[in-house]
């Protein structure tokens, strides 16, 4: 269920060499699609949609360093948004993908903003999903980060995954038949995550420098997606959409923070509509 299509090694000046678990599907003639997951996530966040999108184009997703099945460095300094964005470009260079559509989910949306900021000529279009462009509402509570890190360092992230499974068991807005597989994915991802990545990136989500002043420079077709029940990020979705000229905003009804898993059909419709507009 969690085995990657391939594992590749990438090297960045600040982050060293890491092995990244990668799913690489499709070989159609349309512009490739790149899917970037969020904090505590993994490429399996897109497992329900990758093949559906790979009929006409290449679709690529990988686990960030410190996440799921990729390398855990154990070094807090190697876990920053800048390093993750550099990893992303290194992956695409390794695969020979020069221009691409880019989807960024949650923290992955921040990484995607860094990528398009550095390489605007390579990003054909952009989907920012349930993400933010500035620390909003204080970010992840520091007390929660500290608690997870304490448990993770003392007892392992598997214990954290067990604890979180109990805490969140009644919070899912996914369709009932999909909840067991999503729960299994969440447990796998969290139990394999580097506790140092959790602390460093969780802290950066609270403190990163606002990207809002730069959003007006985005010139590629952009869609801003947000789940109906992801209330904490609706304000950010409004702000991002208003800051990018011509951006389209879509609310996925019934979904929470992970619309691609919670309302897969509606998410696919929205992304396919975006790609059709961008490809034209």
Question: What this model shows, in words?
Answer:
The protein has 10 helices and 8 strands. It has 280 residues and is of the alpha/beta class. The protein has an 8-stranded mixed sheet, with helices on both faces. It is globular. It starts with 5 loop residues before the first strand and ends with a helix. The model has no long low-confidence stretch (mean pLDDT 96).
Search tags:
280 residues; Rossmann fold; 10 helices; eight-stranded mixed beta sheet; 41% helix; alpha/beta
Q: What would a concise description of this structure say?
A:
By secondary structure, this protein is of the alpha/beta class.
Task: Lay out the secondary structure.
Layout: E1 6-12, E2 16-25, E3 30-36, H1 50-53, E4 57-62, H2 81-95, E5 100-105, H3 107-118, E6 123-129, H4 142-155, H5 157-168, H6 179-192, H7 195-207, E7 222-227, H8 234-243, E8 248-252, H9 259-262, H10 264-279
Parallel strand pairs: 3-4, 3-5, 5-6, 6-7, 7-8
Antiparallel strand pairs: 1-2, 2-4
Helix pairs in contact: 2-3, 4-5, 4-7, 5-6
Beta-strand residue percentage: 15-25%
Q: What count of structural domains?
A: 1
DSSP helix fraction:
40-55%
- Based on CA atoms alone, the radius of gyration comes out at 17 Å
SSE ordering:
EEEHEHEHEHHHHEHEHH
